[in-house]
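If you are new to this repository, start here. Below is one unmodified record pulled from the training split, so you can see the exact layout before writing a loader.
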Amino acid sequence: MLFATAVWMAMSAFLPQAAPRGVPVVVVARDLVAGHVLTADDLAVADWPVDLSPAGAVADPATLVGRALGAGMSRGEPLTPARVRGPGLLTGAQDRLVAAHVRLADPAMAAMATSGDHVDLISPAGKIVAADVVVLAVDSLSAGGGAWSTTPGSEAPGGVIVAVADDAAVRLATIDPSGLSDSTFSLVVRTPGT
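And here is the target side for that same chain:
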């Protein structure tokens, strides 16, 4: 009997073992750019180990369909409220900051910025309106051909969403007190720590 038990234990080491079950986490099914509006085909559900599941992980893909990404994502990355546009963009930000969309004079400026960059925003008059603000999201590229249009007036300039204090948001919104023009800004990316 003891011999049979020893043989069974040795053999069971070679038998397939049931994989431990994790928790369901919604992940992106393919690489996606910032600003992309999520569809059911963009999302998948994966089992994640409980200890590695990100805080705020979403289990039901239907809750994310129709939401826009705040930053580009790679296939397999988990989605959390901080990754989609909306109140989640300010997750982890300092108190009293708001998310403000800023139109840029040249769409190529948006292409050089990524989420997390620190930037200065400069008015058409050449004055710094907001200094050392964090980029939360970048507008996606033109839907037409995957690149910015070079034809003047063919589409509105691109932009960025930045985290700014209330007073800076007011300055950005009222840069043209006449209200007669759609103000755009220049963007300067700062080196980290400056």
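Two things worth knowing about this chain: Residues 31 and 74 are 4 Å apart (CA to CA). Residues 142-157 have pLDDT under 50 and may be disordered.
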